């Protein structure tokens, strides 16, 4: 606690500073590599592992099973429709999932009965799920519309609030990176993309932007009286803001991850594939990526966007010049070459 | 001075919050007392078990379905599902072109077909009418006594349509029995049928199908007008037929007009049930008929809607169907709640670790947010039939973290202000001034996201978006009306004001040195290399840009600060020289 507090104090005062903004080139290269690697692995895997909602088909889940032999499930299907290929998987302790191509109503009922008898469970332990072939496309399209509407509205909102489109642009560009990387990680690991996972991705949009706004609000505060601050360049002011909110960023992501982690643990460990696991998995990845991206992508991006403004350039140059002369005055007894600037 | 003020304001805020919670509690109590609510949230299908079908409309002509047509379709599906004996089914539209049907249990094949089928509207002539109930057994004619038709029927009103079987069915049918109101979509087109009119409580034998619903061009309701154009203060329903239908309707009215009752009547059936059985009073040549009767506005509108729907060539395609057993749903609910509690406990432990006693404030705030959210969900379930889904529960659990962040932002700001040298109480107020802006602005991002998602998305996403938005609003209420007021009051206690090590705001840990310089001026806590410079003209530009981005309040504050700055420059200068 005391060490954490001291650390926080030093960050706040600028005594201790991590160079989020100054080393932007390094961070951007790392970010790009991560994205390329994630995308590459996803491509090597043959694209995303789409859930049944996006492929279309029928799915049965049998729970409270004692003997989770997949062949029982596969036989239950082939006994009804021999020509259809069925895949049964043991997705969680005592739970078997059987996926097939689209079945008709009668076939569905028959397969459900077979599964119930085959695994020796009560009727209500068998659930079925049917998804038409166009459903996934329709859902995806709605999501895309939602995404675009949200991005446009939020870009306007941020531009109005921060009174500069540059902050808004930095936030949105960073946001797109967060989503791209999270989706990439999802694809690279081969997690199944289901509607709950998509819900998770959408939450990441909201969470990541939320996180960015908190940090950007501090940047706004630090840079609003540029004329009075004669000691720090614009980059340094932005960087100071990021450092000052660092304790908060870390605390927030930990507090955000704890409940999500507990859903993930219970969802994946006890319930197997399903809404809870899929939602929490994408959010879990997204919170980490979102928090890190605010520090390493969005904040440097904003500084970068404003770097070429005439007024700021002059101001920074002046500050650096003065700093150089101060240093040479201070240290002329120690090092001679510091006065080169 | 200000602190006394702020204390009474804090107390008032807390009183208001209590009033809100108690008020919502009272409304819930009324709901429970009147049996409208059981004090628990309504559960969506994935938690309660049952069947959910997502349907999309399909037209035989391939044309797009209008929103109005969708609403009519939903209305009819609702009537059909209710008519098929399934209780508690819920039918809603989602997005522009999806209908979601949720019902407990598993629907039988017939119900499924009905839900998907297009409207089945028929016009048939009345052959004979009889009592609503079944003919008492002793009065019934024995099958052998019923006369056979004498000849092949000549037109739709010919009594020769009535076969022995039909007549026997007619005398046995009891329209008051519940099964009589079920949907029948298998009426033979070229035979006489028995049908009940529930509005007028009459039972009919009807002739063969004469006009089908797709011949209706349009239908509406309005006030009847006399030939002179004066409104007759009577509600009527207008039907307009397409050309083929108009021709047939002319034939029917020519035949029926002037016949003896009930043979001057024709029946309009939807899904095998009579929606209206008007008598023909005139020959309609142009296919524009008017049905008058004992309509009020509502019943006229309903009939017009049914006629219009009857003209729709819409059937439904099942896009997705999910059947979930009740036990599985309960399992999911149980484990979802367990996950939430574990998450909450972890957050609480972490908060105590980082903020000590203040962690208690965080935890209480989260609990109050939980109460508000719970109340809102129960009340929305009561008023708008809002149902909590598993995705919704996930949304609430995730929001624990998002809510806690409000307090983290706030507490870190207080710490920042203490690092600037302010005592705890002042730090609470200064920190709040800045934190509330950040919190509000960032929460609005979440609310915006949930509103967009809610209106665009289909299915599960909506439930999630809804709880996300709801908790964001609850969070704002809690931060403004609970967390900050409580902090203001705590600032008055010795435990916090003296910076007890367990208070989480120990000034000595925050590197605080007395920087208060008197005369109301607090010198900013700044690192060594402080430089003051004469203002340069060239910097004006970026300074102006910054000024443009300020709000009015900020600009004023900046001006005040600038005024103070110039008056205090002299204090600082000696400090510069030795650096």
From TrEMBL, chain A:
A single Gene Ontology MF term assigned here is: protein-transporting ATPase activity
Location(s), subcellular: Cell membrane
A GO CC annotation recorded here is:
plasma membrane
Q: How does it sit in the membrane?
A: Multi-pass membrane protein
Keywords of this entry: Cell membrane, Membrane, Protein transport, Translocation, Transmembrane, Transmembrane helix, Transport
Q: Which Gene3D superfamilies does the annotation name?
A: Multidrug efflux transporter AcrB transmembrane domain
Q: Where is the Protein export membrane protein SecD/SecF C-terminal domain?
A: 118-306
Per the record, the similarity remark reads: Belongs to the SecD/SecF family. SecF subfamily.
Write down what this protein is called.
Protein-export membrane protein SecF
The protein's organism comes out as Enteractinococcus coprophilus
From which lineage does this chain's organism come? Bacteria, Bacillati, Actinomycetota, Actinomycetes, Micrococcales
TrEMBL record, chain B:
| Transmembrane domains' residue ranges | 333-353, 360-382, 388-411, 441-458
Q: Where is the SecDF P1 head subdomain domain?
A: 201-314
Q: Name one GO cellular component term.
A: plasma membrane
Q: Where is this region: Disordered?
A: 530-579
Residue ranges of domain Protein translocase subunit SecDF P1 in the record: 70-126
Q: Which family does it belong to?
A: Belongs to the SecD/SecF family. SecD subfamily.
This protein's assembly is summarised as:
Forms a complex with SecF. Part of the essential Sec protein translocation apparatus which comprises SecA, SecYEG and auxiliary proteins SecDF. Other proteins may also be involved.
Which protein is depicted? Answer: Protein translocase subunit SecD
